[in-house]
Amino acid sequence: MFKGFTFKARKPNQLLNVEDYRRRMHRCVPAVVRDYVEGGADDQKTLAANRTDFGAWTLRQRTLAGVSAVNLATSVAGSDLAIPVMTSPTGMSALTNWVGDVGVARAAEAAGTLSVLSTASSYSIEEVGQATARSHWFQLYPFGDTEFVQHMFDRARTAGFSTLVVTTDVPVRGNREGETRNGMAMPPTIFPSTVFDAVRYPVWWYNLLKHQRLGAANYEKGVSSRINTTVETHTRQARFMQSDLVWDDIRWMRDLWKGPMLIKGVLDVEDAVSAVSTVGVDGIIISNHGGRQLDCASSTVAALDRIGAELGGKTQIILDGGVRRGTDVIRALCLGARVVQIGRPYLYGLAVGGETGVRNILGIFEEEMRRALILMGCRSVHDLDRTWINRVSPV
Ligand SMILES: Cc1cc2nc3c(=O)[nH]c(=O)nc-3n(C[C@H](O)[C@H](O)[C@H](O)COP(=O)(O)O)c2cc1C
Predict the structure, then answer these.
(1) Which residues contact 314 (CB under 8 A, 6 or more apart)?
(2) CA–CA distance, 136 with 226 (Å, rounded to integer)
(3) 351: how many CB neighbours lie within 10 A of its CB?
(4) Residue with the nearest Cα to atom 14 of ligand 1?
(5) Which residues of 257-279 are buried (b: 16+ CB within 10 A; e: fewer)?
(6) Is the CB of 322 under 6 A from ligand 1?
(7) For a 10 Å CB count at each end of the chain, is N or C smaller?
(8) Which helix (H) or strand (E) holds 340?
(9) Burial of 175 by CB count in 10 Å (0-12 exposed, 13-18 middle, 19+ buried)?
(10) Cα 183 to ligand 1 centroid, rounded to whole Å
(11) What is the whole-number distance in angstroms between the Cα of residue 375 and the centre of ligand 1?
């Protein structure tokens, strides 16, 4: 009766999609880390909208199109990618897993794509440069003064980073109440409950103590971070945050950085036009910092709809925020993005399985895009445009 069936003693742990990894992360890291990764600002309206607004568009399905293989390869700002998905910069990623930025960059390379290293990374610019084979991108928080910025540019260039991303949506830190409740505020505070909760995760705790990757590694001239630098990281960021940054500062950086440069944190059409026509950046990253900064701001996919319609073809557009499925990537590409970046999804992968976990997440996106394009009857990501989607509700 059961001929042809395979019997197994136990059901395998199947992590089939990003949401499975998110749920599994809860078994791997303490609440303080989960809230740091998952939380957004204020009432988290923008965080939610980043997800739900994708639902305003449906995909066109052409039948009998004879498509059995699809092309996912593309390029952006001079970098060739096997898939139109990169990893966003995230500060202190080693809080989720000690392999941190090195694991993320290596996993991105293995998937044929690239990572963007945060200024607030757990591993220094030099460490990531040495551990990788390709030229990844570097994200700058223009904290501090011109001397600090020049110093960071020199280090990034020397370590082999090809492309600069300047994040402009953090003139002040967003109000992330989940982080504050757990003591990740100013000043960072450790409560007994934080410690009791953390000891329930012995593997995470052991690696934390062993590898001591708690803070940001780039603020020191040296190459490694030490356990007490979470406090230093927060203090420095708060002290050197430049709320008064203006377009002239970006122009100055544009002249100084000899390579492709993009601005991250653009949501407004007028800003997108200024970035391209007056500053001459090579591209913009439509981002609201994953809903962690201004709550009630536009979702990124709604901003892409507006900006893509105005600027499509005049610059290279990247979207991040709320991308959880291959079909989200496809919808963003239809609306004018060349590539998307993912933040939390790869942090879930990192928390669950280190470098392999990140590689698995990128593999899931690849597989989902491939399958969806075949089902749509579309041969290549380069064929995607607004004719491949229908708007079913306003955003
Ligand atoms: C834990 C965490 C840390 C982040 N740190 C940085 C950072 O250091 N620099 C930066 O430009 N953006 C940072 N971001 C924002 C991401 O680069 C990206 O814009 C966002 O995560 C995209 O949304 P998603 O998480 O829904 O994919 C961070 C996001 C998270 C979740």
Answers:
(1) 276
(2) 24
(3) 26
(4) 90
(5) bebbbbbbbbbeeebbbbbbeeb
(6) yes
(7) N
(8) strand 339-342
(9) middle
(10) 19
(11) 31
26: tokens are: 């809860």
Token pair of 233, please?
Answer: 């990281």
* Ligand 1 geometric centre to CA of 91 (Å): 7
pTM metric for this prediction? 0.94
Query: How many residues in the chain?
Result: 395
User: Closest by alpha carbon to 18, among 362, 287, 373?
Assistant: 362
Position 227 confidence tier, pLDDT thresholds 50, 70, 90: very low
Task: Please name which of 32, 22, 23 lies closest in space to residue 200, comparing C-alpha atoms.
Answer: 32
Mean of the pLDDT values across residues 93-108?
A: 97
pLDDT digits (tens, 9 = 90+) for 57-80: 999 999 999 999 999 999 999 999
Structure tokens at 22: 């998110």
Cβ within 8 Å of residue 117, ≥6 positions away: 89, 101, 105, 125, 128, 136, 137, 138, 139, 161
Structure tokens that stand for 310 in this block: 């105005």
Structural domains present in the chain: 18-390 (3.20.20.70)
Q: Tell me whether residue 234 is one of the annotated catalytic residues.
A: no
